[in-house]
Amino acid sequence: MNPPRRLLIVRPDRVGDVIIASSCLAHVAAAFPEAEVFFAARPVMAPLFQDHPSLAAAGFFALPDPRATFVERVLLLRRKLKEGRFDAVVSLHPDPALNLAAQLAGIPRRIGYGSGWTDFALTGAVPDRRKEFRMREASYNFDLLKPLGIAAPEEESLRAVVSLPRASRETLDQKLGEAVAGRLKHYVCLHPSAFSPIARWPVAHYLDLALRLRARHGAAIVLVGHQFDDPSHREFRAGAQAANLPFVDLTGKIDLAELAWLLRGALALVTRDTGPSHLAAAVDCPVVVLFGRVEAPYGPTRWAPLGNRVEVLRSRAVRRAGEARDAFFRRTFAEIPVDEVAGVLARLLPSSSHA
Mean of the pLDDT values across residues 199-227? Predict the structure, then answer.
């Protein structure tokens, strides 16, 4: 079969998954140097793929609102796929609506995970090996590229690649303002929230760590996260006020590209395994990633960020007889000691700075 001329790679789910998926784009572009390569994800991801080195001009394809009904998504995707005139589409995550839409749009090659009742809509249904939990998520993506003749590279060589639009640097500076920007010469970012409201490092630990970073390294503290009213962020604000801890609060105020610029200049980021941990690794920011849940589906074997400046700390908690699931998940994070995180940061940060 002839090589594709207009190829669409799709990753429809969360921020971290999309950033991980970016590690395959350079390999796709190298395999098909004459093709135009496009990447599809949720609209919130668009700034990170603007003028991406491995994509065609205007190579980001915004997926429809995931809150739409199944039928609405199929119809919206069909129209957009048809307008894109793609001759191949590869879905890196099971998406029955996309499978149907690609068939209805008449795309000749349609590759995705075999996931049940919409397999008939695929020309290449690939077995989903991810539940083996033997490799990084980035490596499993190449199972879906193999039908196009793209072999998986060595796992250690994979790196996420995102764009850093200059305009986002300027808007970040505007949001910080001159007074704040002047103080942010040496700073550490803390990201206490997560998709799960349960599986989080305790806010009290973040506050303890922040006080140590101020005292031992003179580091300014920057709080980052998606939702301003997230309970963990509210608790951090109250605790910081009680402890007379100064910090810069950017929660809910910056988009992903602005966050990427912020992380690029940071001394480090501390977070559990979340989207920002993968973004930090992509922009070469040292990141301390806390894994409370280390069992196969959730642990670092599959989900550790790609990069050379990633420090993974694993919980050593063991589930007690009769312990409720949620209680155990909370404890897995709570038992990652502040001393251990501070010790890792002591190796990464200068012994004294001026915030």
Answer: 95
- Homologous superfamily of domain range 166-348: Glycogen Phosphorylase B; (3.40.50.2000)
Please name which of 218, 220, 196, 335 lies closest in space to residue 273, comparing C-alpha atoms. Answer: 196
- The domain limits of the chain are 6-157, 166-348
Q: Supply the DSSP string of 89-122, one letter for each residue.
A: EEESS--HHHHHHHHHTT-SEEEEE--STTGGG-
150-176: per-residue pLDDT in tens? 999 999 999 999 999 999 999 999 988
Instruction: Tell me the C-alpha to C-alpha distance, in Å, between residue 43 and each of 18, 96, 219, 244.
Output: 12, 19, 34, 39
The kind and range of the H/E element at 248 are strand 248-249
122-130 CB contacts, 8 Å cutoff, 24+ apart: 128/94, 130/302
pLDDT digit string (tens) for 176-193?
886 576 667 899 999 999
CB of 42 closer than 8 Å to CB of 66: yes
User: What strands, in cross-sheet order, belong to the sheet with 268-272?
Assistant: 248-249, 220-223, 187-191, 268-272, 287-291, 310-314
**Apex 106 CA angle, 140 and 102, nearest 5:** 35
pTM: 0.94
The pLDDT of residue 151: 94
Residue 88 has pLDDT above 90, yes or no: yes
End-to-end Cα distance, the chain:
59
Cα separation, 307 vs 23, in Å, equals 11
Q: Is the pLDDT of residue 352 over 60?
A: no
pLDDT band at 353 (very low <50, low <70, confident <90, very high): very low
Same-fold call for 6-157 versus 166-348: yes
Q: Are 292 and 332 in contact (CB under 8 A)?
A: yes
Q: In this structure, which amino acid lies at residue 352?
A: S
Instruction: In whole angstroms, give the CA distance from residue 68 to residue 46.
Output: 19
Write out the DSSP string of 113-153.
Answer: E--STTGGG-SEEEP--GGG--S-HHHHHHHHHGGGTPPP-
6-157 is classed in which CATH architecture?
3-Layer(aba) Sandwich (3.40)
